[in-house]
TrEMBL record:
InterPro entries with a match to the protein in the record: Peptide_deformylase (IPR023635), Peptide_deformylase_sf (IPR036821)
Textual note on the cofactor: Binds 1 Fe(2+) ion.
Family: Belongs to the polypeptide deformylase family.
GO molecular function: metal ion binding; peptide deformylase activity
Organism: Pedobacter cryoconitis
HAMAP family documented for this protein: Pep_deformylase
CDD domains hit by this protein: Pep_deformylase
Keywords, in A-Z order: Hydrolase, Iron, Metal-binding, Protein biosynthesis
Residues binding Fe cation, per UniProt: 95, 137, 141
Protein name per its UniProtKB record: Peptide deformylase
Function: Removes the formyl group from the N-terminal Met of newly synthesized proteins. Requires at least a dipeptide for an efficient rate of reaction. N-terminal L-methionine is a prerequisite for activity but the enzyme has broad specificity at other positions.
Active-site residues per Swiss-Prot or TrEMBL entry: 138
Catalysed reactions, semicolon-separated: N-terminal N-formyl-L-methionyl-[peptide] + H2O = N-terminal L-methionyl-[peptide] + formate
One GO term of the biological process aspect: translation
């Protein structure tokens, strides 16, 4: 089932998420729905806060490479990045919660990450390149951070009106979104 993606401005995107255990209700169904949602939005990663759940869960699927081989596909539960190494490199990133905005973000190219997979088996992996970048982006989500947080003050100022438009729902996306509720203004 495709779920609505939470838009920029919703407080759930700023929460440091809570760990879960193997008894989390309907976890396998949730994971399946997250993949359906991510694929429908043409994404390569999706974190639980982006569907309104402040839990430490995210998924990644970088798709096929140029040779048609399966890319990097994983489920991350209660992930912890243990190490980030290498010279930071810039790459243009976007986010399903922040449609129509893409910016260069500096990230280190190598990480060591520990997590439970969808079968509740503890994993520890060394990742590099695009897999490391996507994991870092999604990991930021479960830490209450967005890629726009990495931008310079000048760039954030230049994007403010676009970000405000997203918060108000004045944006078009090719997928279902849920926008923050309008606050009643006192007069």
């Amino acid at each position: 089932m495709k779920l609505p993606i939470i838009a920029y401005g919703d407080p759930v995107l700023r929460k440091v998420c809570e760990s879960i255990d193997e008894n989390y209700p309907d976890l396998q169904k949730l994971i399946s729905n997250m993949f359906d949602t991510m694929y429908a939005a043409s994404g390569v990663g999706l974190a639980a806060p982006q569907i309104g759940l402040p839990i430490r869960l995210f998924i990644v699927d970088t798709g096929e490479d140029e040779d048609g081989k399966q890319g990097f596909k994983r489920v991350f539960i209660n992930a912890v990045i243990l190490e980030e190494t290498g010279e930071p490199w810039a790459f243009t990133e976007g986010c399903l919660s922040i449609p129509e905005i893409r910016e260069d973000v500096l990230r280190k190219p190598n990480i060591k990450v520990q997590y439970y997979d969808e079968n509740w088996e503890m994993q520890e992996e060394d990742l590099s390149g695009m897999a490391a970048r996507v994991v870092q982006h999604e990991y930021d989500h479960i830490e209450g951070k967005l890629f726009t947080d990495t931008l310079s003050l000048l760039r954030k100022t230049m994007l403010k009106s676009k970000l405000d438009s997203i918060s108000r729902g004045d944006i078009h996306a090719d997928y279902r979104m849920k926008f923050p509720k309008q606050r009643n203004k006192k007069r």
